[in-house]
Q: What sequence folds into this?
């Protein structure tokens, strides 16, 4: 059993229902943030362009797409680890390149919110989806069909 399998086994055996509620709220929050970005992309483009000279259109669309698609998947617990790993680079960029950049007002920024979301994404990447999730539902029903 390699390290990844050991980590998945630990995450599957040490997961409470409270964490499932946190996962749902996190996915819903990320989805709402994606709607906010999609409804008005100009502030996001301006924010990224203040930190970088060249703003690829792909980056802004990737952020909105990832939030809109993988936020709900995270909320319902479908492909939880994959959904978290897709979101982690976005939050690393938000924490280290946007919110902690010199000259950026850390008090009025979303630095702490970005840090909390990043830590929760890393946690759910390690621990998995939990008992109240589509992943768990599919695991138990597939096992019953095979027996």
A:
């Amino acid at each position: 059993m390699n390290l990844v399998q050991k980590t998945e086994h630990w995450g599957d055996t040490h997961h409470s229902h409270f964490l499932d509620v946190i996962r749902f709220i996190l996915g819903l929050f990320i989805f709402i943030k994606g709607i906010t970005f999609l409804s008005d992309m100009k502030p996001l483009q301006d924010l990224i362009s203040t930190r970088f000279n060249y703003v690829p259109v792909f980056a802004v669309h990737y952020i909105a797409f990832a939030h809109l698609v993988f936020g709900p998947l995270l909320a319902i617990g479908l492909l939880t680890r994959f959904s978290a790993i897709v979101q982690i680079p976005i939050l690393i960029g938000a924490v280290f390149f946007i919110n902690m950049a010199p000259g950026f007002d850390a008090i009025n920024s979303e630095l702490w919110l970005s840090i909390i979301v990043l830590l929760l994404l890393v946690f759910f990447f390690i621990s998995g989806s939990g008992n109240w999730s589509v992943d768990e539902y599919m695991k138990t029903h597939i096992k019953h069909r095979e027996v």
About this structure: The helical segments are 3-13, 17-39, 41-51, 57-76, 80-99, 111-127, 134-146.
